[in-house]
Amino acid sequence: MKLNGKVDFINVDLRIHVTPQNKEAVKRALETLALWEAIEPYTKTDTLRQIEEVG
After folding, report:
1. Cys bridge to 47: 22, 33, 42, 43, which one at CB 3.0-4.6 A?
2. How far apart are CA 23 and CA 28, in angstroms?
3. Contact at 8 Å (CB) between 29 and 23?
4. String of b and e for 18-27 (b: at least 16 CB within 10 Å)?
């Protein structure tokens, strides 16, 4: 979104390929993004459940 000629924020759709080998790293990355308030807390969605089902 542009305000006063500056971009204040953008929304990005992202697909993440989760494998048994990278699922812990993916969870840590999502936790970090949630801590920085870049994403909504993902534990309230099906995302964490879906990650846990891998592998």
Report:
1. 42
2. 9
3. no
4. beeeebeebb
Cβ atoms within 10 Å of 29's Cβ, excluding its own: 12
Looking at the DSSP bridge assignments, the partners of residue 6 are 3
Q: What is the pTM of this model?
A: 0.73
Single-letter amino acid code for the residue at 12: V
- pLDDT digit string (tens) for 9-54? 888 888 999 999 999 999 999 989 888 888 877 766 778 888 989 9
Q: Which two tokens stand for residue 18?
A: 């989760």
